Amino acid sequence: MTDPPETSRRTHVFAEPPVIPTRSTDPEVAARRLVVGLVVAVVITLGAIIAAIGFLFAGSTVVVDPTWVDFLGANLLVSNELPPSTLFLVALVSLVIVAGTALALETIAALLSVNPRRAVLNEYRQTQTDTSAGATVRLTVLVPAHDEETSLPITLAALKDQTRPPDRVIVVADNCTDGTVRVAQEMGVEVVESVNNTDKKAGALNQVLNQILPRCDASDVVMIMDADTSLTPRFLEVGATRLTTDPELMAVGGVFYGEGGSGLVGQFQRNEYARYSLQIRSRRERVFVLTGTATMFRASALLDVAAARGVFIPGETGRVYDTAALTEDNELTLALKSLGAPMVSPSECKVTTEIMPTWHNLWVQRKRWQRGALENLSAYGLTRGTFRYWGQQFGIA
Q1: How many angstroms separate the CA atoms of 173 and 181, rounded?
Q2: What's the sign of the alpha-carbon dihedral 45, 51, 54, 58?
Q3: Of 40, 63, 82, 231, which residue is the least packed, with the fewest Cβ within 10 Å?
């Protein structure tokens, strides 16, 4: 039996849009609801304990003189008098407010289902997108690079060492003045140079995505990764397997770790990245931000984003990346979540990325991240897709 011709892989849709399945039958939903129930029970129990302590000691009028206490070589004046009842009340109210806010955020995140906007977007899609379970994915890797001749060989070598090799690798050379193009060509991968791009990484990626996405069908997956990042050998295998077995899944993000070196400032960053990986694992791989270091997207999800720009989400219609966003990976995460796209970050999908070598560089990076997050949230407003992120910013404040 011969393979069907290329043109038959994409058929125009004239019938009703396909019904998009939800995760209401997913056993994980029941488990998440159980977790929410346990959190409620813990909050009520703690509140009851604090209330009991407050009522028990509220009437105490015993006055005890403060005493000097030696603590780690320092003399501290400590009062043994019980706090007033109003302080217990304030503590109780504060606990309820903090716990209630956290519980609300967790409830929304745990019970959030696929957004009905995905069904609407199917009406605009030009091609049938059959993402039934078991369909083998075709993987194209895009590596945006600006003067990365030093780090690019490590990145491309890690791609060649994958247990599931990519079907296509394209280095997106953006306004390079060094040997990036030459290095990529010597390592046997495709090179596309940006043309008159003034929008940095997002603009260069938009140019390439505008070329390849119209030729994609339901089996296509696009991975976008930084040129200073190396993947663990099973990254593509695990990600492709997840996308093959779960037809609802729209993106698989990496769990990033810091490279070695840079002394104390480097160790602090590695500790931070390690803590983030533990948080992802504790949240059952639920993604907070699809990292720009390495993420796999269904081509159909990126097409949805491009179609929704200027309609449902901020940005220019037809562009995957919003070039006005300071942090394009965070903005794209909000775009996909606003459209109800399920996504995960499996613990097996590890990447090693560069870290800031000095305190000044770290400060500049984190200030940029924070400003970008606030600008993105301002553009999206308070929605079901951004509710948790607003809560995080409230907690930071």
Answers
A1: 7
A2: negative
A3: 63
Which three-class secondary structure state does DSSP give residue 60? coil
The per-residue DSSP string of 189-234 comes to -EEEE-SS--SHHHHHHHHHHHHHGGG--TTEEEEEE-TTEEE-TT
Global pTM?
A: 0.67
Mind listing the pLDDT tens digit of every residue in the chain (397 residues)?
Answer: 444 344 333 333 333 333 333 444 445 455 555 666 666 677 777 777 777 766 665 555 556 677 787 777 788 887 766 667 777 778 778 877 877 777 776 666 555 444 455 555 555 554 444 455 556 778 999 999 988 888 899 999 999 999 999 999 999 999 889 888 999 999 889 999 988 888 888 899 999 999 899 888 878 899 999 888 888 899 999 999 998 888 888 899 888 888 888 888 888 888 888 887 777 777 777 777 788 788 999 998 999 899 888 888 888 888 899 888 888 888 898 888 888 888 888 888 888 888 888 999 889 988 888 888 888 888 888 776 777 777 777 777 7
